[in-house]
Amino acid sequence: KGVCVDISASTDASNSNVFRNGKRCNSTCRDPELGKCAPSELEDCSGQESDSYRFDVNSQTCRKAEKGKCGPFTSLAACSQRCGRYIPKKCNMPALTSRYCNIQEIRYWYNSTNEKCEEILGCEDDVTSFPTAKDCWLTCSNEQSSRCLKSPDLGRVGIGWTRYYYNISDNTCKKTTQIAFWQKTGNKNIFKTHQECMEMCKPKYIGDVKKYKTRNLIAVSALKH
Questions:
Q1: Global confidence as pTM
Q2: Burial of 76 (0-12, 13-18, 19+ CB in 10 A)
Q3: Which residues contact 165 (CB under 8 A, 6 or more apart)?
Q4: Domain with residues 96-143+206-212, CATH architecture
Q5: Is the alpha carbon torsion for 181, 174, 123, 207 positive or negative?
Q6: What is the pLDDT of residue 216?
Q7: DSSP β-bridge partners for residue 206
Q8: Where are the domains of the chain?
Q9: CA 79, CA 89: separation in Å to the nearest integer?
Q10: Does 96-143+206-212 match 147-202 in CATH topology?
């Protein structure tokens, strides 16, 4: 992304891309590209009681506007639709997909409630989900939070018992007879059944994926260099 940075320059610098302060730089170069996602879209509205939402460029999240302020969005979903492309870590966003796409594909949405990456049907340009399960898991979780990211403790020899482990590289639950049976497996990437592995590491989202109109989104390329 293009950003405003501090530099040393003479006060009479004639370069049009040199500004006296960060506020002027951002208002000239960043905010026009961000549109409704820009900080300047937040307005005073004392006395209005309905909730509104805004995009916080510092934390890169959509959040409820502060008391006495009005954001440009009437819902968190509307903010996520418009500003989701500016959020690299899409781990606390609603499940959304485009209303218009020729072919739906399997994508992965991080459910922050149960802390799992869940399979959904979406579109290639969706802004609140990931193209692969691996991208989703590695962005939004870690080994301490989910056993699915741990390396399977397979042991050195097979003992005849069948167990299963999750392979994050190809998003599959694989069978194995090599088990480190002397260690407890309750928090390890080893499961007694294929179903248990699937439910823990390859769940499908059972809620409704809200659809939005893609024409309400704007493609912003000037900030990405």
A1: 0.65
A2: middle
A3: 152, 154, 173, 174, 176, 189, 190, 191, 197
A4: Irregular (4.10)
A5: negative
A6: 38
A7: none
A8: 39-86, 96-143+206-212, 147-202
A9: 15
A10: yes
Contact present, 164 and 193 (Cβ < 8 Å)? yes
Amino acid residing at 212 = Y
Query: What confidence tens digit (pLDDT) does each residue in 139-176 have?
Result: 999 999 999 999 987 776 666 788 999 999 999 999 99
pLDDT for 74 equals 85
Given a contact cutoff of 8 angstroms between Cβ atoms, the answer to whether 62 and 53 are in contact is yes
Residue 92 has pLDDT above 80, yes or no: yes
The two tokens of residue 149 are 């990211």
- Percentage helix, strand, coil, to 5, in the chain? 25, 25, 55
Asked whether the beta carbons of 100 and 91 are under 8 A apart, the reply is: no
Give me the mean pLDDT over the 3-12 stretch. Answer: 60
For the residues of 34-81, what is the DSSP string, one character each?
HGGGSGGG-EE-TT--S--EEEETTTTEEEEPPTTEE-SBSSHHHHHH
What would the CATH number be for the domain defined by 147-202? 4.10.410.10
Here the tokens at position 111 are: 């459910």
What does the alpha-carbon distance between residue 178 and residue 157 come to, in Å, rounded to a whole number?
A: 5
Query: What average pLDDT score do residues 109-121 get?
Result: 95
- Mean pLDDT for 18-35 is 62
